[in-house]
Amino acid sequence: MRCLDYHGAAMSDLLLAMRSRLLPAVITALGVVLVTAGLLAYADPTTVGAEAAASPTTEAIVPSQEPSSMPSAAPTAGPSATPSADPPGSASPDPTATGGSPVATRVVVPALGIDLPVVKGPDGYPLCDVAMYLKELGQPGEGRATYLYAHARDGMFGPIYNLAIQRHTPKKMLGMIVQVYTSDDKLYLYEITDYRLHAVGTAALEDALSATTEQLWLQTSEGPKGTPGKTQLIAELLSVGAADHKDAHPKAKPLACG
Prior knowledge:
The chain is an alpha+beta fold. The chain has helices at about 1-45, 50-55, 160-165, 205-210, 245-250, and strands at about 105-110, 115-120, 130-135, 145-150, 175-180, 185-200, 215-220, 230-240. It is about 25% helix and about 25% strand. Strand 5 and strand 6 (about 185-200) form a beta hairpin.
């Protein structure tokens, strides 16, 4: 009887040990699989939307009129597609978010009636009702070029298109002042000193990418969707000063448009 009691106790201890060690291990392994599956689902580029999925892969940082992560615009009186409140594949960009390094939040060209919130450019087709910055370049105060772009539409960069392409008078924009507000409540004043028409391909960004002084580049398109040429305005820094917090943090309401 003592022998049976001994073996029975030993078997009970063994089962208890297996249950206390193996079960948590199985649960932990299952949890890792589920978390990994969730991360992969969030990272899946096919969830971004049809426009982003159709982005060309041959122009990584080249301004393009087609859906891509690059600057692009189409000169029309308004969005050609019914805009939605939420851009595909991203939360509504909000320039009031000030985490990290300061970024451009608003661009104003008083002489042209341009006044737009600035947000980070999306990976898909450019947004409407905002200007966007090209994340591959710099921000005001970094000692290099800041590159802002917007559609050539009314309420956006349409006035640039109107003077440069429709009226063939881009020289009228030379000397105009551009105000750029940043998320750290600063106001940068630039003067437009040069312009470029029909900019195409990677060469269009070479000078901006290689700039070693404070510059501002503004870009818009020169024709309907698919037109390759772009108009660029180049501005040099005049001064930097403090800005009212409210002025530097406009409420952006970007619209997905095509």
